[in-house]
Specification:
The protein is of the alpha+beta class and about 220 residues long. It contains nine helices and five strands; from the N terminus they run H-E-E-H-E-H-H-H-H-H-E-E-H-H.
């Protein structure tokens, strides 16, 4: 997967009206198939109970930013038999610090509250958020508990015990064969992504095809 190791768009709209009509026809006729997902050669051990869906992402990935609003809409109709979670993974640049930010906010129980602001800061406001000082400057006016953030941030120092959660996340990404983000892993058996399910499509259509593929995999888990 090369969809997120470089800052490239997921796809471009057809340049001509004829091309746009052709793309629309393709979109309406499209159905998910085996070329739109990968089945792991070695299935991972899955916990009993709900089917686990994992989004491997990085705040700084433009494709993750483009997918995010579509993901939030789709999650509202996720079957109760499926449990979703996000996992931040390091890709390049400041992604290790961003991963630490994710786990810090998650441990505080507020990651969902600040996710949109972090994406906007990185992709619309040109911020790097390369250290905790910049992160606090962004999030404190939005209600961040700075004292708690600093304590929790320290707990996720690479040498600290809590950093085991980060190492476990990285191992999970390796087990799923994640090479770029966003990648979605389902039940220790499948992966898909906008670059796989929606290759060459505009972001919204790539997202639609990704979630159609996930719907298909959830309904046919273990059968394809």
């Amino acid at each position: 997967m090369k969809h997120s190791t470089r800052r490239q768009a997921l796809g471009l709209l057809a340049a001509s009206p004829l091309g746009a009509l052709h793309a629309t026809a393709q979109a309406s006729d499209w159905r998910p198939g085996p070329e739109h997902f990968r089945r792991l050669r070695q299935p991972l051990r899955r916990p009993a109970g709900k089917l686990e869906l994992i989004e491997f992402f990085w705040y700084g990935c433009p494709h993750c930013f483009e997918l995010e609003p579509h993901l939030q809409v789709w999650l509202k109709r996720l079957p109760p038999t499926v449990e979703f979670k996000s996992v931040a993974v390091p890709i390049r640049g400041y992604s290790v610090q961003h991963q630490r930010l994710f786990f810090t906010l998650q441990a505080m129980g507020v990651e969902h509250k600040f996710r949109a602001s972090i994406f906007q800061a990185l992709h619309r406001q040109g911020q790097d958020l390369g250290n905790n000082v910049e992160m606090i400057k962004l999030l404190q006016p939005q209600g961040l508990d700075v004292a708690l953030f600093e304590r929790t941030w320290a707990a996720f120092d690479p040498k600290a015990f809590s950093a085991a959660q980060i190492r476990a996340a990285n191992q999970m990404a390796d087990d799923y064969g994640v090479e770029g983000v966003p990648t979605l892993g389902l039940g220790g058996l499948y992966t898909t992504s906008p670059s796989l399910a929606g290759a060459g499509q505009p972001p919204a259509e790539a997202a639609r095809r990704t979630f159609a593929t996930l719907d298909f995999l959830i309904q046919n888990y273990g059968k394809v």
